[in-house]
Every structure is written in C-alpha cells, then in structure tokens.
C-alpha cells in the first residue's frame, strides 16, 4: 500500500496506527477489520517466507487464498526480530503506533523484548492487545492452540452434529475468529477510554474464553437443568419446529421461534389441526412431543419440492431459507445488492475478488480495499516515511539480513495445488 493510498483511506479509525505482529488467523482477522475501519496497519512478517499462511494452497498468481482472505489493506514489513537491529526497529515503530497486536503464546513477546511493559515505557498511551489460545494463567497456557482445539474444549463440537453421529467442528474457523472479534471489542473500548484519560491498556483475549462466551443459551441450559445440551443437528434444543426439513428434492430451513410462526407454519403445510392439539399447543408441549410432531411435518412436506415450499412458506410468513453452498451464497442477489464483494488488482495475482466488511457508516461501507502486499513490499516506505531512515541505511540493513526491502513472493502455480 503506497502512502497516497493510505491517505485516501477513510473511516472512524483514520489516523490510528497499528503495529501487527500477528499471524495465521486470530490476529490478522482483527487487524484487517481495523484496516477496514480506516486504521493504518503495519504487518511485521518474518524474513524468507513471511506469515505461514502465504504458503497455504490453493494459490492465485502465487498468492495464497488464505493470505488474501485475511490481509487486505495492510503494509508488509519483512524484519528479523531475532537480530538486535531488527528488534530496535520494531521498538521504534511501536513508539509511533497507537496499537500493538500480537497472537503468540504467553511470554513469547516478553522473551523477544517486545512485551507490554517494555513497549509502554515512555509510551503510556499505547494500547497493547494479546490474543492467545488459553491466556497466561491457564493449565493449557504452553500448549499450541488452533481453531479446532478451541472448538473441542469449548463444548461446541459436542453439539455440532446429528444425534448419534461423531462430533464435528464448525465449518467456519470460529475458534480463531471468536478471539479476533472479542479483541476488537476490547480494542475499541480501550481507544474510547484513552480519549478520556490519555492512558492505554493491555487488552487480553483467549480463544477458548471467547468460544465459551459464545455458547449463549447452551451454557444456561446446563446451569438451569444440570445437564449438558445434547446434539440435535439442525434442530433447536428447546424450540420446535426449527431446523432443516426434507422436501421431495432437497431440504428447506424452517424456524418457528414464536407461536405466531408456528400457527402460520401449521396452516402452510395444511395441518391447522395441529394448532389446537394439546401435544403441540405450546412450546414445552411441542418440545416434549418432538418425536411425534416431526414425522407429521415430514409427511406433509414430502410431496412437494424445495422451490414450492420456499414460495409457500414465504406466502404464509414463516421464516425460511434454502441451504446454499458457499459459492451460491457469494453469488446470491443479497450479496450483490449490499456490495459485499469488491475486486482489486494485484501486481502478480491479477484481479482478486474480496469479501468486504459488513459495517456501514451513514449508509456507506469501508474504504475500497487495497490488495494484500507482497512480502516486504512496504518495508522501505514504512521506515523511510515513518522513522526517517535514509536509502543508504535501508541498503545497509538489508545487506546485513535485518530486513527485506525487495518485493518477494514464492513462485506458485496458478492452479489449485
């Protein structure tokens, strides 16, 4: 991203500068959202291969799909943090930033000499965010944590399945993304507080804590009943009818969260008699008699196809939806109407389609994205314009292997690997 592109970016966080040491997903997603909101993101990457996700297939023009998805609108600075000069440069940059973001295991940044107490010395307005798997005081602190680990330990996998089937992870990486999302809450709250006090904060978020926080009513079922919720597939643990229902040629989603919707649904499927049936007349009755009600619904819907039921359910004002593939979801009219996909030009990968952030301000979304940078593409710009380094200094540091000012990208095949 050039300096002129940075100046063109707008949003509520314009003028906020973030030094991003994070990699893989939980940190990079958070910094990408900050970039969408107008912040300047300086992404520190290891020399050589950079963020590990640069190497995850499939690739477009040598650029990993994974890296593309999480690193738009950021500047890439390739730096050797194990060298004395590289460490000094990182500290100099931190002194110019509002936020430092990292997602290493607890203690790693302290051992590098880049921990919160070190970087806030003389910079008390600094907001420092640490996203970890388990937090510093957990019995799991030293264990590596990835999405599926957080999902497993949160209890989510135990209910994400059909009854009698093996536990399954969520199809989206929510274990990672939950840590990102809660870190953003903390960062924005800390920025608000700093505006009043001038003091920064150390924001700490654990992925496992975040996943447990997202259990919602499932945790309360356990607290109230003393029993863990059991898997019900696409159905709801306490609301009936709710879930995926078979049609003559597929499935449709029906969600009767209120009595009005239940009455509408019963009329829709030609079974208005069920409304006054004492087995199904109220929430608790339908839940207790789920085994009797579900076959009646299946029988009523089996004779017509999905398209018929989607139209009829809408006519009767019953919450409904088809079950779309990822591709169908991205190509649906809603996505186009909301402008959720934008196209940017990358110097090596060509035209990239990206999913935009969902937040609107005064009816407008984020600034147009800039493409993910090649490894080290912005090193010279960041150090020259941000810290006043001369070209001769940059050449000398590059010669010593402290940093990379060249535009580097692994040679990848165009096709899916």
UniProtKB/TrEMBL annotation:
One of its GO terms (molecular function) is CoA-transferase activity. Transmembrane segments: none annotated. Keywords: Transferase. SUPFAM superfamilies: CoA-transferase family III (CaiB/BaiF). The keyword Transferase applies. PANTHER family: SUCCINATE--HYDROXYMETHYLGLUTARATE COA-TRANSFERASE. The lineage of its organism: Bacteria, Pseudomonadati, Pseudomonadota, Alphaproteobacteria, Rhodobacterales. Gene3D superfamilies: Crotonobetainyl-coa:carnitine coa-transferase, domain 1, formyl-coa transferase, domain 3. This is CaiB/BaiF family protein. It comes from the Bacteria.
């Amino acid at each position: 991203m050039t300096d002129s592109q940075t100046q063109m970016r707008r949003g509520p966080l314009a003028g906020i500068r973030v030094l991003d040491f994070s990699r893989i997903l939980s940190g990079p997603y958070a910094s990408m959202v900050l970039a969408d909101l107008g912040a300047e993101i300086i992404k520190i990457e290891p020399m050589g291969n950079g963020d590990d996700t640069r190497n995850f297939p499939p690739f477009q023009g040598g650029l990993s799909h994974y890296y593309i998805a999480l690193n738009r609108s950021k500047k890439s600075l390739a730096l050797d943090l194990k060298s004395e000069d590289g460490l000094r440069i990182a500290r100099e940059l931190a002194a110019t930033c509002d936020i430092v973001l990292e997602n290493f295991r607890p203690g790693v940044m302290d051992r590098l000499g880049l921990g919160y107490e070190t970087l806030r010395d003389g910079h008390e307005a600094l907001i420092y965010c640490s996203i970890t798997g388990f937090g510093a005081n957990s019995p799991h602190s030293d264990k590596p944590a990835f999405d599926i680990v957080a999902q497993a330990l949160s209890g989510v996998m135990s209910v994400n399945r059909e009854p009698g089937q093996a536990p399954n992870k969520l199809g989206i990486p929510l274990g990672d993304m939950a840590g990102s999302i809660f870190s953003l809450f903390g960062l924005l709250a800390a920025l608000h507080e700093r505006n009043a006090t001038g003091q920064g904060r150390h924001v700490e978020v654990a992925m496992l804590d975040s996943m447990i926080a997202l259990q919602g009513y499932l945790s309360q079922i356990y607290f109230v009943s003393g029993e863990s919720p059991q898997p019900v597939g696409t159905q709801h643990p306490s609301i009936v009818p709710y879930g995926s229902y078979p049609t003559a040629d597929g499935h449709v989603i029906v969600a009767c969260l209120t009595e009005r919707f239940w009455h509408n649904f019963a009329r829709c499927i030609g079974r208005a008699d069920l409304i006054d049936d004492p087995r199904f007349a109220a929430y608790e009755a339908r839940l207790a008699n789920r085994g009797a009600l579900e076959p009646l619904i299946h029988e009523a819907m089996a004779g017509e196809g999905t398209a018929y039921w989607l139209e009829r359910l809408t006519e009767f004002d019953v919450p409904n939806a088809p079950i779309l593939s990822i591709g169908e979801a991205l190509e649906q009219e809603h996505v186009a109407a909301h402008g959720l996909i934008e196209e940017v030009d990358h110097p090596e990968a060509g035209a990239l389609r990206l999913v935009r952030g969902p937040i609107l301000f005064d009816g407008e979304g984020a600034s147009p994205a800039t493409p993910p940078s090649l490894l080290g593409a912005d090193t010279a710009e960041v150090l020259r314009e941000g810290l006043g380094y001369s070209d001769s200094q940059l050449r000398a540091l590059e010669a010593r292997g402290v940093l990379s000012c060249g535009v580097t990208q692994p040679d990848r095949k165009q096709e899916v690997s």
